[in-house]
Amino acid sequence: MSPDKHKEMVKFIWSICNLLRGPYKRNEYRKVILPLTVLRRFDCVLAPTKEKVLTRHNALKGKSENIIRPEHCRITKTEFYNLSKLDFNRLLDDPNHIAQNLNSYINAFSPNVRQIMERFEFGQEVLKMAEKNLLYEVVKVFCSDKVDLSLENVDNMGMGYVFEELIRIGAEQSNEEAGEHFTPREVIELMVNLLLSPEEDLAKSHVVKKIYDPACGTGGMLSTADKYIRKHNAEAKPILYGQDWNDGAYAVCKSDMLINGSDAENIKLGCVFTQDGFEREKFDYMLANPPFGVEWKQQQRFIEKERDSLGYEGRFGAGIPRINDGALLFLQHMISKMNRPQEGSSRIAIVFNGSPLLPVMQEEANRKSDDGSSKTTGWKRLCHSRNSFYNTGISTYIWILTNRKEKKRKGKIQLIDAREFYLNMKKSLGNKRREIGNGEEGKPNHIANITKIYDEFKQNDKKKIKTADGVLKEIIVSKIFDNEDFYGNDMIIGRVGAKCGNVHLVEGKKWISDNALFLYNAKGFELQYLSLILRVLNLNQYANQNAQPLITGWIVRQQIVTLPSIKEQKSISDFLDKKSAQIDDLIQKKEEIINLLKEKRAAIINQAVTKGLNPYAKMKPSGIDWIGDIPEGWKIERLKYWVDLINEPEESEDEKFLVDLDNIESFTGKLLNEIEGGGKGMKMFASGDVLLNKLRPYLAKVFYGGNYGCCGGELLVLRPKDKIVPKFLFYRVLSIDFINLINNSSYGVKMPRANWDYIGNVFLPYSNKQEQQAIVRYLDRKTEEIDSLIKKIEAAIAKLREYRSSLITAAVTGKIDVRGK
Fold first, then answer.
1. Mean pLDDT throughout 4-19?
2. Residue 706 CB: number of other CB atoms within 10 A?
3. How far is the C-alpha of 112 from the C-alpha of 157, rounded, in Å?
């Protein structure tokens, strides 16, 4: 399928949304378009064998499913079938019963397809479209020749493009990160080439390889790897495995696997960290573009329990990364699924941003396998240009790992600089403004060139490259390092961005990105002492004041520092270690008190808005499990009957008081700072409105509007009806039980968010307005008491940190003599 044909089809399918305007909002279009596209694909694929299946089914009446299913799949030459006399065109014959007939048609599919449609929750949309008299017209357009999704017209690779482009457009319409669920195909092709090009055994007759993606999205990496292997060996038998947390992406991937003949049962739904779908499996090849920059707090309990209980027998024995970026967890998960060398070994390709290259943890590069033998993993890192992905403009990296290195690579690490291997796109897609050429349509074959650089494995390899601007320049594209170059105790200094000038003393193996300076072999210095001096110098002050703060290695080298003897340096370091440990212990105890106070604050709110203020009140069952009993006289209703949802953007371009996610404090609703902004396209709120965050609900960002202003699309504006006191609504939706309920309903791995359809239908208890006002007065008083106490403890912690800083400064500058102390 040519790119032009693919774009034309996507454009036409999305144009069907024009029929949905009115009853559907823009962010709801994909609820209809994506499942109908999948359904139409199934319909077109089965069309040539439809009559044969129905005829054969009549002959098999009364037989068991174990006989019926294989027989029908033999006829369709797929792993699915449909036993209805209806198809898309025949649905149009009875406009008055089209909803009933469409549901009947879906229910006549084999169980694996029905399961996919259930994940789309498409039944609700069928009823909604029928109620609004839209269903007939929408199905009619999907029946047109312009949506011919037969295998003859659209091959599996082309269908993957169509699915992914529809998901991208739908995500943009919903204010999600564009391309949240997939990776550009040319990036996947590059990863697959780097992963598989050295594999000589792929040419063997009937070779069987198991391929796995733990964040498979719509299945692009799996299908591209499958295509590569079959292209080089028609008799090969790749077996594809994948898992994803997102219902929609999982449904698309599973349907794609069904259509291309792969075993769709190998596609699992769920989070790999809490419910590993392939707990006992090992794989030959693994590929992933895991979510990065995303908190893994929801999975923290499971991950820490496995780390503490299983150690190196589990996946996380080497340690876990910081809580706000779980990308390295995916790598550890994949390493745990490598075959041992004596069993054939494995290769991994994974996409990262710069953060895993920083020394946040010691990697699981040398871990013990089940038999106790060393499981040394080889590394190759490739950096490619910014703006290559749909959902991020930052630099990205491809890592290649294996526990079966070629002889020339033993003990070596290759770094490839591929930042100049790109073309500027005529039209950007989200943040994607650049693409990697694959040699087609007159484009340079960047993929082949980068793969060749990898295969040649040359130190300081220079290439003359014609840049995207047409300039010919010579650059070093490959460097080779010994493993030992990354060992030892060294220092990392933040070079650019928010961490500019920050100093980190690190041990063991580490990787750093071009966002950091690497200080090693500092002769004459005890490193701990040197790190203390550099912190005292406050290198941040030397950063330039551009949009991205930057500090250079030259600036660091120009600093003048005191240099006592190594013995004195060690004495100072030991003294400060001891004192810092005492101060840190005191700070930790105070922070624990703060956490307990925050828990108490949440419990008080929860109790008051659910049980009231009278501990002796007679209770009655609410009928809702998570609420339990409520006071007699209280009512229970869905949230949508409490409020009006204000969802229309403002057309005015005037700047107004702006409330955004970043300036709302979690769990308190307090405004961190007041900013002017907003204007056209923002939603307006008035005094008394409550703003509820739907993006990453676990952050519990709720704001009570004290005056008139505007907010972004990730905040729901709730205007209380007359029966609800506004501040009571604020406390009700800020309560921890409500936040947990909404968070568990959220979808999306990279940017989990809840939707109003779910939130609005949550049942909540409430009392009369007089009692609500009493609850508000009580909670205002109690939360203010707790917040005031927290502020006092935070001030004490700040003073302790100031004392520690001044103590370090005094010791390393000789203002106090710590020798012998």
1. 85
2. 12
3. 21
Which among 620, 627, 622, 631 is positioned nearest to 732, based on CA atoms?
Answer: 627
CA–CA separation, 296 and 294 (whole Å): 7
Kindly give the pairing relationship between strand 423-429 and strand 412-418.
unpaired
Q: What is the DSSP letter of 76?
A: H
Spatial neighbors of 283 by CB under 8 A, at least 6 apart, are 210, 211, 212, 241, 337, 338, 339, 346
Q: What would the pLDDT profile of 564-604 be if each residue is shown by its tens digit?
A: 888 888 888 888 888 888 998 999 999 999 999 999 999 99
Please tell me whether residue 525 adopts helix, strand or coil conformation.
coil
Would you list the DSSP string of 719-731?
EE-TTS-HHHHHH
Residue 361 confidence (pLDDT): 35
The strand pairing partners of 621, in sequence order, are: 629
* Amino acid identity for residue 82 in this structure: N
Question: Taken in order 74, 47, 148, 109, is the CA torsion positive or negative?
Answer: negative
**CA gap 532, 546 in Å, rounded:** 27
CA 765 to each of CA 387, 481, 606, 619, 728: distance values in angstroms, whole numbers, following the listed order: 48, 64, 12, 12, 11
Q: Is 212 exposed, middle or buried (0-12, 13-18, 19+ CB in 10 A)?
A: buried
Alpha carbon 351 to chain centroid distance?
12
CA-to-CA separations, 532 to 120, 538, 562, 580, in angstroms, rounded: 56, 10, 12, 12
Please name the amino acid found at residue 260.
N
Q: Using one digit for the tens of pLDDT, what is the confidence trace for 747-781?
A: 655 567 888 989 999 999 999 999 999 999 999 99
Q: Where are the alpha helices (DSSP H) in 87-213?
A: 88-91, 98-107, 111-120, 122-131, 135-142, 156-173, 185-196
- pLDDT of 450 over the 70 cut: yes
Q: Would you state the structure tokens that stand for residue 559, as one six-digit string?
A: 């600093």
In DSSP terms, 213 is beta-bridged to 242
DSSP 682-723: PEEE-TT-EEEE-BSGGG--EEE--S-EEE-TTEEEEEE-TT
Amino acid present at 194: L
C-alpha torsion 450→452→454→459, nearest 10: -110
* 571 CB-near residues (< 8 Å, 6+ apart): 818, 819, 820, 821
Within 496-634, where are the H helices? 527-537, 553-557, 566-611
Nearest to 557 by CA among 493, 640, 470: 493
Predicted confidence (pLDDT) per residue in 159-202, tens digit? 877 887 787 677 656 544 433 445 777 888 888 888 888 887 78
pLDDT at 710: 86
Q: Half-sphere exposure of residue 341, counting CA atoms within 13 Å on the CB side? A: 15
* 209 in Cβ contact with 202 (< 8 Å): yes
Phi, psi of 281 (to 5 degrees): -90, 150
What is the distance between the alpha carbons of residues 172 and 723, in angstroms, rounded to a whole number? 37
Q: Are 492 and 511 in contact (CB under 8 A)?
A: no
pLDDT in tens, 391-424: 444 567 889 999 888 889 888 889 998 888 888 8
pLDDT at position 83 is 93
Give me the mean pLDDT over the 724-731 stretch.
96
